[in-house]
UniProtKB/TrEMBL annotation, chain A:
<keyword id="KW-0813">Transport</keyword>
<feature type="transmembrane region" description="Helical">
    <location>
        <begin position="20"/>
        <end position="52"/>
    </location>
</feature>
<dbReference type="InterPro" id="IPR003667">
    <property type="entry name" value="NqrDE/RnfAE"/>
</dbReference>
<dbReference type="GO" id="GO:0022900">
    <property type="term" value="P:electron transport chain"/>
</dbReference>
<feature type="transmembrane region" description="Helical">
    <location>
        <begin position="129"/>
        <end position="150"/>
    </location>
</feature>
<dbReference type="GO" id="GO:0005886">
    <property type="term" value="C:plasma membrane"/>
</dbReference>
<comment type="function">
    <text>Part of a membrane-bound complex that couples electron transfer with translocation of ions across the membrane.</text>
</comment>
<comment type="subunit">
    <text>The complex is composed of six subunits: RnfA, RnfB, RnfC, RnfD, RnfE and RnfG.</text>
</comment>
<dbReference type="Pfam" id="PF02508">
    <property type="entry name" value="Rnf-Nqr"/>
</dbReference>
From TrEMBL, chain B:
<keyword id="KW-0997">Cell inner membrane</keyword>
<keyword id="KW-0812">Transmembrane</keyword>
<dbReference type="GO" id="GO:0022900">
    <property type="term" value="P:electron transport chain"/>
</dbReference>
<dbReference type="InterPro" id="IPR004338">
    <property type="entry name" value="NqrB/RnfD"/>
</dbReference>
<comment type="function">
    <text>Part of a membrane-bound complex that couples electron transfer with translocation of ions across the membrane.</text>
</comment>
<keyword id="KW-0285">Flavoprotein</keyword>
<keyword id="KW-1003">Cell membrane</keyword>
<dbReference type="InterPro" id="IPR011303">
    <property type="entry name" value="RnfD_bac"/>
</dbReference>
<feature type="transmembrane region" description="Helical">
    <location>
        <begin position="286"/>
        <end position="303"/>
    </location>
</feature>
Length: 237, 342
């Protein structure tokens, strides 16, 4: 495959085939840890890192590993990458590591990662695979951050609380209180809020797609009234 | 309304949705009067504000969905939801609490699922549970009944609702709550020690329950619903209370009569459990549905963490209603019994 355009890959990862809101993969961490922006960024970065690493390794070994053992091999690669990111977070963002808890090791089982390894990296060359991993990870992370932001805003009336967990003490003052005197709306932070907001995001995405489609249809050339169409019979090869 | 597949003769009843909903609204009147008598104007203001919001949200949702607004507003279903939620909320709730509740009821529980007749969950109860989970402080502070505390006047009640920052409410634990928190007093001593206990249950609560029972019986007489679900629910609640009642020790869960006349028992039995959309529809199904709600109410009330249990019990059983219907579908005369639901 030589005709892969990076533009197409970007569009796929970020919008048309977004892992979180179109493929609906990796919903477990998506729903569980997006209670705040900082959690979402932490998990989004970790997932992106694992995706890039696993895509890179898989595309490098794709011609060496036989088909029969490819899945175990992929899982080993992914598990190693997850262990790396887990140790890194333990070293540099320990509080966040504790908050994310079981969901860091669970990145191993995130379907997005095995899905990209199986459907893209094992069929493509080195560079496109890295790029695909990066853009798919970004697409996933963006949805995580959007969801985290919405839920944090609706739940606590503030944004970017506790950013120092990830970006060091200087980020402690990044918190923006959007609504003064806000009654915290616990439902948004609890799991039901994750389902409701994910549904709303998917609905908005579908609405935008439908609008764009309608726009395209309206702009398309309309057939001239009365024009005759060439009748085609038989098979076209 | 309930779409049960039945055989001929297909006799038509004169019941239209709007007529049924009007009867339900009428039947809540005695309960509303009793609640207002014992707890002040709070409940009435809840109901009025909720009704205004319900009509507004309903109109908004219908406009967004491009449905005829006048036609659907005329079926009174949004008003029924508003009145039920207004009664369920604690009196003197702030305006934003009721607004969030009504938005959850009408927009989330009703119109996201396709409007009246398509909602798998009872809208009023969804609104109530959203609020109970999100704002436990406001939702568990109930006003003291007449006799146990001073009742706020009409102006104070309006102030409590619309400028909650300037209002210092007096609240008191409900009898159900007191009984649950109690772990040292015999039930009889508990009755002496707390002013909110009345003759059989709580002051005000017992009469409110009796008033809702009266309203429910009238609805039954009007054939708005059948007796199966409410009777099954009350029967199993009584049975559970009787089984676990130990004569009044400090660990007692309360007598059957106490449970029948406390909290939202009668209101739930006749106004929530009988919801034709979200409940089971076959006769046997209704019996099972009601009976399981009764058991759940007792379990959540006595062993759970929330002050009352009707909303949770009803929502859980709403989930189970299609499943129950699947296995209790009536057999058409002359057809062989199929091997379980298929």
């Amino acid at each position: 495959m030589t005709d892969i355009s990076y533009r197409e890959l970007s569009l796929n990862g970020l919008w048309k085939n977004n892992p979180a809101i179109v493929q609906l993969l990796g919903l477990c961490p998506l729903l569980a840890v997006t209670g705040s922006v900082v959690n979402a960024i932490g998990l989004g970065l970790a997932t992106t890192f694992v995706l890039v690493t696993s895509n890179t390794c898989v595309s490098l070994i794709r011609n060496v590993v036989s088909d029969a053992v490819r899945l175990p091999a992929f899982v080993m690669i992914i598990a190693s990458a997850v262990t790396c990111i887990e140790l890194l977070m333990q070293a540099f963002a320990y509080e966040l590591y504790q908050i994310l808890g079981i969901f860091l090791p669970l990145i191993t089982t995130n379907c997005v990662i095995l899905g990209r390894a199986e459907s893209f990296a094992c069929k493509n060359r080195f560079l496109p695979s890295i790029y695909d991993g990066l853009i798919m990870g970004l697409g996933f992370a963006l949805v995580l951050v959007l969801l985290g932001g919405l839920r944090e805003l609706a739940g606590t009336g503030a944004l970017f609380a506790d950013m120092d967990l990830l970006f060091g003490p200087a980020a402690a003052s990044w918190q923006i209180t959007v609504f003064e005197d806000y009654q915290s709306f616990l439902l948004a932070i609890l799991p039901p809020g994750a389902f409701i907001f994910t549904g709303l995001i998917i609905a908005v995405k579908n609405l935008i797609d439908a609008r764009m489609q309608a726009h395209r249809d309206a702009n398309r050339e309309k057939p001239v009234k009365g024009a005759k169409r060439v009748r085609v019979t038989g098979t076209i090869s | 309304m309930a779409l049960m597949r039945i055989t001929s003769p297909h006799a038509h009843g004169p019941q239209k949705t709007s007529w049924v909903m009007q009867q339900v609204l009428l039947a809540t009147v005695p309960g509303l009067i009793v609640l207002t008598h014992f707890f002040g104007f709070g409940t009435l203001i809840n109901v009025l504000w909720a009704s205004i919001l319900a009509l507004a949200f309903e109109a908004l949702a219908l406009k967004l969905r491009k449905r005829p607004i006048g036609f659907y507003l005329g079926d009174y279903s949004a008003l029924v939801t508003a009145v039920l939620l207004g009664i369920a909320l604690p009196p003197y709730s702030p305006w934003w609490l009721i607004t969030v509740g009504m938005a959850s009821s009408i927009l989330l529980a009703k119109h996201l699922y396709g409007g009246l007749g398509y909602n798998p969950f009872n809208p009023a109860m969804v609104g109530y549970v959203v609020l109970l989970i999100s704002f436990p402080v406001q939702m568990t502070s109930w006003a003291p009944p007449r006799g146990a505390g001073e009742l706020p006047g009409l102006m104070e009640a309006l102030q409590a609702c619309f400028t909650p920052g300037n209002y210092d409410g007096v609240t008191m634990a409900t009898p159900l709550d007191v009984l649950k928190q109690n772990n040292s007093l015999l039930v009889e001593d508990l009755w002496q020690a707390n002013p909110q206990f009345g003759r059989w249950a709580g002051v005000g609560w017992e009469w409110a329950n009796i008033a809702f029972l009266a309203g429910g019986l009238w609805l039954l007489y009007q054939r708005i619903f059948t007796w199966h679900a409410p009777v099954a629910m009350l029967a199993t609640l009584t049975l559970m209370a009787a089984l676990f009642y130990d004569g009044g020790s400090s660990a007692s869960g309360g007598s059957p009569l106490f449970h029948l006349l406390s909290g939202a028992t009668m209101f739930g039995a006749f106004f929530i459990v009988t919801d034709p959309v979200s409940s089971a529809v076959s006769v046997r199904g209704r019996l099972i549905y009601g009976a399981l709600i009764g058991i759940l109410i007792y379990l959540i009330r006595v062993f759970g963490n929330y002050p009352d249990a009707v909303a949770f019990a009803v929502l859980i059983m709403n989930l189970a209603a299609p499943f129950i219907d699947q296995y209790t579908q009536p057999r058409t005369y002359g057809h062989v019994k199929s091997g379980g639901g298929d």
